[in-house]
Write a structure and sequence with these properties.
Strand content: under 5%
Low-confidence stretches: 1-7, 27-32
Radius of gyration: 17 Å
Helix content: over 70%
Largest sheet: none
Order of helices and strands: HHHHHHHHHH
Distance between the termini: 34 Å
Length: 192
Amino acid sequence: MPEKHRHSRCADVLFGRLYDRLSLLESGASLETCEKTDRLFRQLAEEDACRSAHELEDQIWSLWCSHAEPEATQKMEQAIRAIAARDFPAAHRLLGEMTLRWSDWAEVWNKRATLLFLEERDGESLEDIDRTLSLEPRHFGALCGLGQIAIRQGEPHLALAAFKAATLVNPHLAGARAAVESLERALRRQRH
């Protein structure tokens, strides 16, 4: 029983830290990121046509998955292939090495969070999402991952905040918008 209580306090601290990150994003706090990514996010916010929005999203993902060091980009590609093939041991080896060598690369942490999510290791995945968002607060993939874990963990308010934050930075995420609507309906029903 004491172990469970300790885990709950740790989870509460992590949830609190993630709530703080979401509120910073909503407040429009300044973000230090690369100029090209900033430009793409501005275009994404202004873009009405879905096709163009998808192209902008793809460009953002491409930037996130690329690194100045060719070896890093190559290892990212290998990790993505390993996750897609469900070769989780290989993905863990690659991403573990990458988190040590390129610890300031947000996408390394996001990919490992995705891997841990697929393994239903939610607590560890949340820690990597937190690290991702500390490096790139507009990471809509990590924000949606946070929302999915929050739903799975019975935290609808955190899920709602995460999906709202994702749509704030990328208004073209149909799945996130649908999740916001569904969660808002469910929370209204709970209040009545």
